[in-house]
Each structure stands twice: as structure tokens, then as C-alpha cells.
Specification:
Blueprint lengths: L1 H33 L9 H25 L4 H16 L1 H5 L12 H8 L2 H9 L8
Length: 133
Amino acid sequence: MGKKILLLATLAVLVGVLSGIAGVVYQKVYIETVGEGFIDIASIKNIMMGCILGTLVAAVGYFLISLVLKGKTDMVFNLLFVILSFASILGPIGFRLPLEQESPELFPGLTVPMHFFPALGWFALRPFFGKSI
């Protein structure tokens, strides 16, 4: 059990860091393409912390699901991760930007795709950990 928790934590941090890096790269591309990156709101720190905390919470969820559903953990977890990723986009869609912010309509275009990076990273890297998780 201790090995499983350690592997899940490793997976979560790895996916979180890589998702955060992908988010920062995406923000840089977005700035180059659109001219606005909302760097005061979507700072590098906020992007990295959001991804790492999100994947750590996902790892706890995975562990709890594995205790209840031994054989169907991946299937149920992946479905829940996708549903929660879609639900999380309501945050940036409904976010109220400061009145002085230019082009507030571009904010969801920057942040909504970032909400899927942790799930995509988990789906890509989870198989490398085999059945040991």
C-alpha cells in the first residue's frame, strides 16, 4: 500500500509539472498569436500550482476509488476525471475580470484548454506505471 501511494504521488507530481509546463508554453503561444496572455491572472505560478494541486487531488481520488472498485478503478477514474475536467471549465467561463482588462472575451480561450492538460497528461503517463498502481 505504501508503494502504491508513493507511485501515485510520483505520477501526480510528474503529470502536474508537465501539465504546468504545457500550460505555460500554451500561454506563450497564445500571447504570440492573440497578443494577450492575462499574465497578471494566469501567472506561471498560478498555472503550475493549479496543475500540480489538481493532479495531487486526482491521485487521492484514484487511490480512494481503487480501495472501493478493485478491478474497474481505471475505467471509473478516467470517466470521473473527464467529467470533472469539463465541469472545471465553468470557472474560467464565468470568471469576472477587472474592468480595466483589455479583451476579456479572450480569457476563456486561454484558460479553458489548460483545464484538460492534467487529464491528458494522466492518460498518457499512467500506462507507464503498469499494474503497480
